[in-house]
């Protein structure tokens, strides 16, 4: 947001000096999640070439494009990180230094009449109506900051534990057990988990991998490459024994470590927002599984088969042009398309199977835990091999199409006609989970480390549909799953997930005060049949990012953006040359803020009495000669809202 604000201000300088006040208790640039003061074992989850803080020529926005280096380009040009290459998964410490460099660069290149000041503290409340300047109170100051406009960019939020988590915490206190609720890995206190202790872990995504590393290599263990090319774990003796499970019962798919062999698939093809909206125009209601998923699946499969046919023609029975012509005209869920794939792709192993990809343990029941361990270890080994072998480059074609679908989905206007229940269970539930499982897995080396830990007996698998219960009499946790009748008892429990958003109980005093006063509202999805779902997210206007009150009234001087709001789908680093949504949204907001601040301060008759700032006319004196913007970023700085 700051980069877009200063770039736009340089193109059309404000008519009066502009003061930007940045409020954040964590260092600017890295913020909380990406601060440099954390374990060097914490890695990025994207390669250095796929991380940038600068827009490029592909970004469609009204503001000026001030290009800059990606993480890998910065590392090479600055000479600061010789070990970082284009395909490196850099440490978060390296990323922190990149983010600080970006911050210093954009501030140094600001226009002469714009100042930027950092306040290393936390904002606790905002006061001020639609017609007055905003007073931003800071926890270590007696006097507030005065601002014409306030932008909230708080990233992911911490929340007070829910009822179920409080019951587990109380149980742990009564029996002196270890318990870690949902938390950010770098901030988690893992000292309560003892060497050799049996500890349950719920969740097998990115948070699980972080915590796994901290509890093993972070306690002195080491990984060694064997002569056979397999990774082995050498324990330190200070590790707990981790029993892990989730709904799927397997870890996220490993990151793909090769490039396309054929040409990039032309995307989007079947799932572009304008075409989908036109196709579904005039419908009062649409369905996810009937209307959207068939087009999404066809798009993902198109990316897969495009790479399979063009890069590996020896494994298909017809030319790509012939297959593509037939594929284009067939419905995804029809028998003709299935027949086409079976006729043109002889090997079943070369056909894309969404059901098998999504839930590899579904329908499998093992007689005991030992058989489950063997099966899951083999599953992980096969996944690592597949995603390291260019013979399976069709998987990368599917991944690129998956990214395309993910980027187009938030742009659909027809989503407003999707029932709220479906938006919760299908879009925010199944689809989001499927996307993260397929596309947000760990680097190959991390997955190899997980396999080595499993082979060493430090990590054991509980299975799919993991459940946890408490045994008051024995004073232990007990867990099991749908994959085996065996259960396990443990004296520690880790919720290996990030906290869920919950505006009413978030730990940020500023947001809680706005919520309690009715000046901010939680986003609620509801259907005509009485179904209602609390999202836990701050409700902002999707058109202009203004904070909405409990009565649905937008505040003309308060904006918010990021994953703590209902406009949250770009909460990830931007990929270069991808027309990243974050740049487009930040540019829109930056230009709106400058529009409000840039005109002469006094009221004129021509603007309908709104005042020269574009804000409602002041009842008192005109605004001061210096415009002030407060950027409040107090909790977790996510990359594109730093």
From TrEMBL:
Domain FAD-dependent urate hydroxylase HpyO/Asp monooxygenase CreE-like FAD/NAD(P)-binding: 1-156
InterPro entries tied to this protein: HpyO/CreE_NAD-binding, L-asp_N-monooxygenase_NS-form
A Pfam family assignment: NAD_binding_9
Membrane-spanning residues: none
Name recorded for this polypeptide: Adenylate cyclase
Lineage, opening ranks: Bacteria, Bacillati, Actinomycetota, Actinomycetes, Streptosporangiales
């Amino acid at each position: 947001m700051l980069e877009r604000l200063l770039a736009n201000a340089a193109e059309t300088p404000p008519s009066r000096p502009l003061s930007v006040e940045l409020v954040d208790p964590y260092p600017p640039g890295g913020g909380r999640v990406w601060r440099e003061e954390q374990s060097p074992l914490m890695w990025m989850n994207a390669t250095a070439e796929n991380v940038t803080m600068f827009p490029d020529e592909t970004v469609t926005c009204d503001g000026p494009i001030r290009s800059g280096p990606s993480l890998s380009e910065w590392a090479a040009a600055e000479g600061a990180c010789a070990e970082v290459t284009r395909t490196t998964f850099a440490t978060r410490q390296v990323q922190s230094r990149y983010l600080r460099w970006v911050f210093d660069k954009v501030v140094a290149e600001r226009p002469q009449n714009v100042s930027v000041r950092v306040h290393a503290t936390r904002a606790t409340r905002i006061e001020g109506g639609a017609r007055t300047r905003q007073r931003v109170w800071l926890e270590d100051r007696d006097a507030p900051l005065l601002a014409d406009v306030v932008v909230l960019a708080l990233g992911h939020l911490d929340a007070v534990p829910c009822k179920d988590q409080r019951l587990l915490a109380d149980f742990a206190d009564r029996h002196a057990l270890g318990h870690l609720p949902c938390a950010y890995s770098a901030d988690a206190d893992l000292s309560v988990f003892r060497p050799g202790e049996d500890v349950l872990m719920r969740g097998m995504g990115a948070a699980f991998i972080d915590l796994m590393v901290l509890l093993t290599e972070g306690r002195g263990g080491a990984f060694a490459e064997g002569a056979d090319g397999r990774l082995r774990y050498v324990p330190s003796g200070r590790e707990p024994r981790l029993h892990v499970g989730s709904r799927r019962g397997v870890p996220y798919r490993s990151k793909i470590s090769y490039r396309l062999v054929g040409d990039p698939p032309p995307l989007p093809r079947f799932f572009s927002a304008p075409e989908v909206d036109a196709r579904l125009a005039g419908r009062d209601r649409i369905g996810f599984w009937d209307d959207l998923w068939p087009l999404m699946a066809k798009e993902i499969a198109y990316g897969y088969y495009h790479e399979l046919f063009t890069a590996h023609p020896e494994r298909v029975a017809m030319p790509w042009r012939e297959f593509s012509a037939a594929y284009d005209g067939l419905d995804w869920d029809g028998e003709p398309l299935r027949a086409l794939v079976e006729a043109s792709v002889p090997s079943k192993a070369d056909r894309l199977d969404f059901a098998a990809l999504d839930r590899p343990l579904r329908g499998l029941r093992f007689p005991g835990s030992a058989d489950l361990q063997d099966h899951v270890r083999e599953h992980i080994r096969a996944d690592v091999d597949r995603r390291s072998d260019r013979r399976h480059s069709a998987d990368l074609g599917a991944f690129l199409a998956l990214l395309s679908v993910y980027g187009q989905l938030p742009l659909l206007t027809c989503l407003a006609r999707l029932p709220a229940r479906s938006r919760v269970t299908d879009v925010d539930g199944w689809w989001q989970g499927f996307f993260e499982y397929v596309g947000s897995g760990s680097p190959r080396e991390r997955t190899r480390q997980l396999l080595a830990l499993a082979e060493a007996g430090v990590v054991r698998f509980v299975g799919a549909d993991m459940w946890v219960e408490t045994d008051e009499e024995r004073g232990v946790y007990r867990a099991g799953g749908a994959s085996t009748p065996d259960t396990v008892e443990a004296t520690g429990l880790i919720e290996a997930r990030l906290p869920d958003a919950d505006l009413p109980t978030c730990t940020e005093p500023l947001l809680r005060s706005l919520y309690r006063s009715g000046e901010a509202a939680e986003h609620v999805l509801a259907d005509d049949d009485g179904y209602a779902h609390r999202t836990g997210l701050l409700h902002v206007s999707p058109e202009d990012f203004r904070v909405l009150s409990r009565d649905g009234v937008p505040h003309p001087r308060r904006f918010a953006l990021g994953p703590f709001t209902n406009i949250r789908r770009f909460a990830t680093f931007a990929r270069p040359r991808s027309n990243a949504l974050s740049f487009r949204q930040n540019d829109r907001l930056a230009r709106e803020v400058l529009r409000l601040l840039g005109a002469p301060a006094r009221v004129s008759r021509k603007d309908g009495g709104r005042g020269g700032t574009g804000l409602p006319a002041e009842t008192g004196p005109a605004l001061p000669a210096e415009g002030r913007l407060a950027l409040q970023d107090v909790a977790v700085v996510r990359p594109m809202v730093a």
